[in-house]
Specification:
2 copies of one chain form a homodimer. The first copy, chain A, is built from 5 helices and 17 strands. With 281 residues, chain A is of the alpha+beta class. In chain A, the strands form 5 sheets. A 5-stranded mixed beta sheet of chain A has the order 4-17-16-13-14, with no helix packed on it. A 4-stranded antiparallel beta sheet of chain A has the order 3-2-1-10. A 4-stranded antiparallel beta sheet of chain A has the order 9-7-6-15, with helices on one face. In chain A, a hairpin with a 2-residue loop joins β13 and β14.
Chain lengths: 281, 281
């Protein structure tokens, strides 16, 4: 089942279910007004959303055309521009797989974590590289270095991935295109050191999490250089090892990045993130 | 104006307005169902909440009795037990002043930040001290070391503090009682190095924030030791300087902490946080 949110002027946007081919959707307001409302009461809502999906696929529900992902707090839609106020901040993309969790009790083990994963999607975990070193040096972690994140158009239930979802990993390639050139076609599964189940157990060690928590798996990366890169920092590191200094610059206004994940038939699983950098103000 | 949330079985709880003496409240469902909904549309909602407060004070609105603070995500109410799974984690309280923000645009200056502060409240920013050093050493900041935070029963509009709210600081004493003994009666205003306005400008440098963001001002602390402490780590540091090693242990099941802030007449501004540590599971 594919879910998405359509902008309707409200904070969270309107929940819709999407056809398997990603080309049609129908509003789910009669079942749950927002994605957060659906996650808050998932066990009751999920079967009704699945029924609505079946109605959409069989032509019994009205289909609509273009979809965008919204979210609570300040997040970016899949085709939103990336506003950059200062080029010296070192803007970078990061292609990542994320999961959306249901309620997670304190002390949930990795073995029990599978039941907490409700949805899978992609994100562009945008980073301001040149602000990061000073933040890490203080020990208190990222803050200014991590502006608003962009998400894929669709979030899918784990069954949509079939056998590609196992052991808490998504065994699909994440493809990243930078300024029109494919720069990464990277396996997200086998080299993911900590699975999403491990990560759930880690975050829940000392506290519970509420339905709607988005958990990112980190930038997708493979040891094989032929698979390419999922962020410019990785390319700059490779260049530094090879030649002593990075040759690739960080992103500038006008640059574009797109992120996608295809199934065995070449169909997009979560839809494509496609963004352009613009000057902020 | 004092606001609070009453547990009603829903995720966010029901929004209520509270009388000036903190003893009565009335439901605000006809104006806004939840505190988040009020913050999402504050300019339209605030005058109606104020009218409801006037009706409550004048006896024209029905009053009810006991209030609790809820919130989105997993937060603790003011009288919730603090669940502790492992005493070696080093449980500590931290008495803090917080503000709740409206929408904050990217690049908001400290001079413009005053207009973004909607509400003021207290929190117990619970910390697991012995998990913090390893987390800080990794550079990525607190995670397991910061379990769910508890908040005061009421959140008040800045005008409730009168002249005590100026320059983005709350010029009131925060009183902390540990196991029945007053351990801190600390000025929150004059020694707050960065004002809330400075902090808003800092967090908004590279991104926007959504209405409902809670911004904590850090543990309240004074240079004068006679004012006491707002967390056990501070006392342990004083003991270490004086005698080479800390004598005070961190919190154990059965320990209690309460946090309050009084006005010039000795009335509680945001109500009292009063919690007990219990063994988790």
């Amino acid at each position: 089942m594919k879910l998405a949110t359509v902008r309707d002027g409200s904070r969270d946007g309107a929940l819709v279910v999407v056809s398997a081919d990603g080309r049609r959707f129908t509003r789910a307001a009669a079942v749950a007004a927002t994605l957060q409302a659906a996650l808050d009461d998932w066990l009751a809502v999920e079967p009704r959303l699945r029924a609505l999906t079946h109605a959409l696929e069989s032509g019994r529900a009205p289909a609509e055309a273009v979809v965008y992902q919204g979210g609570s707090g300040v997040l970016l839609g899949p085709c939103d521009d990336i506003p950059l106020a200062d080029e010296t901040w070192g803007l970078d993309f990061e292609s990542e797989v994320c999961v959306v969790l249901g309620d997670v009790a304190q002390g949930t083990s990795a073995a029990a974590a599978g039941a907490t994963v409700r949805l899978i999607l992609l994100c562009n975990d945008i980073t301001l590289r040149n602000l990061v070193p000073a933040e890490l040096a203080k020990g208190f972690g990222f803050f200014q270095g991590k502006p608003a994140t962009a998400f894929s158009p669709f979030a899918v239930t784990p069954d949509e991935l079939g056998a590609a979802w196992h052991d808490g990993r998504v065994h699909r390639r994440v493809r990243t295109t930078y300024n029109g050139t494919l720069v990464g076609d990277v396996e997200a599964g086998p080299e993911m050191h900590f699975s999403f189940f491990d990560l759930v157990a880690h975050i829940a060690r000392t506290r519970a999490f509420a339905a709607g928590t988005i958990l990112g798996g980190g930038t997708v990366s493979n040891a094989d250089p032929a698979r390419g890169i999922s962020c410019l920092a990785e390319r700059r590191a490779i260049e530094t090892i090879a030649g002593g200094a990075p040759r690739t610059s960080f992103m500038k206004p006008g640059d574009t990045v797109s992120i996608d994940m295809l199934d065995d038939d070449g169909h997009s699983v979560c839809g494509r993130i496609a963004q352009k950098v613009i000057k902020h103000r």
